[in-house]
Design brief:
By secondary structure, the chain is α/β, with parallel strands linked by helices. It is built from six helices and four strands. It starts with a helix and ends with a helix.
């Protein structure tokens, strides 16, 4: 009887072992699955946080760049040049730094000459470039108003970067019509400024204005000094003579090149 009871217990134990083993594996697998899900969630949260931080940095960077660009646009007129806020005492201002000291001195003397003869004061301003969106004539007119120049005064602005200039004169000044003003800015100054001869170009502008403002007439824009075209060509007789001379020289050289080696060859053969 006891033996039968022990046998029943052993059989039940054998039957329960696979179940216990399977349940244990299920428990282990469930724990592993839970751990993997937790790790994925943590990774996803970290990735989301990184993307959020990158997005915030990009927004801050874009806003900073926009603000910086806006500041540059607003400050462009100030950065372009450092001209006086009020009418200067010296009539010649070289803000571009392209004029030589001797040319500035010459321009000052011309301005003084105009003042003594006609009573008008001639201001010449050299700048490197213009504020964004302005042309030379508009800038010159605005500067004339800003400095509160008088009706008998003349303002010239020369822009070295674009090799152009403009003139604005008060209502009492005679001889400066629109055609002359355009010619001075786009022909007289541009003629040498395009070759980066800014000092000479400024002197040409000054000399032309001095002539106009002192009632000596407008000499007009500079022109190329061309020599007579015939002087650049030789006559047919001279050309023929020179050609004959060159042909003779070439023939002599060819003869020497062929004859001398042959003479040397026969000399060595003769000795043998």
């Amino acid at each position: 009887m006891i033996f039968l009871i022990v046998k029943i217990i052993i059989l039940k134990s054998i039957i329960m072992l696979p179940l216990l083993y399977c349940n244990g594996n299920n428990i282990i697998f469930s724990n592993q699955k839970t751990n993997l899900l937790s790790q994925k969630k943590i990774y996803k949260d970290k990735t989301s946080n990184k993307l959020t931080m990158i997005s915030i940095k990009n927004k801050i960077s874009n806003n900073s760049l926009k603000g910086f660009a806006g500041s540059l646009i607003l400050l462009t007129p100030l950065l372009v040049n450092a001209l006086p806020e009020v009418k200067p005492e010296n009539p010649i201002i070289d803000d571009s730094g392209v004029l030589t000291k001797s040319s500035v001195s010459f321009l000052e003397k011309n301005s003084q000459k105009v003042l003594e003869v006609s009573g008008s004061k001639l201001y010449i301003v050299s700048i490197r470039t213009l504020p964004y969106g302005e042309d030379p004539s508009e800038f010159t007119k605005n500067l004339f108003s800003k400095w509160e120049l008088k009706n008998n005064e003349v303002l010239v602005v020369l822009v070295s970067k674009i090799a152009k200039g403009s003139v604005y004169a008060g209502s009492d000044v005679k001889g400066l019509n629109d055609a002359v003003i355009k010619s001075i800015g786009e022909e007289t100054f541009s003629f040498k400024a395009k070759e980066e001869q800014y000092s000479s170009a400024a002197i040409d502008v000054s000399n032309r204005l001095v002539s106009i403002l002192t009632n000596k007439g407008d000499p007009g824009p500079p022109t190329l000094n061309r020599t007579n075209d015939s002087s650049n060509f030789k006559s047919a007789k001279v050309t023929e003579e020179r050609r004959s001379k060159y042909v003779a020289i070439i023939i002599i050289l060819l003869v020497i090149a062929f004859v001398v080696p042959m003479v040397q060859f026969f000399y060595y053969v003769k000795d043998e």
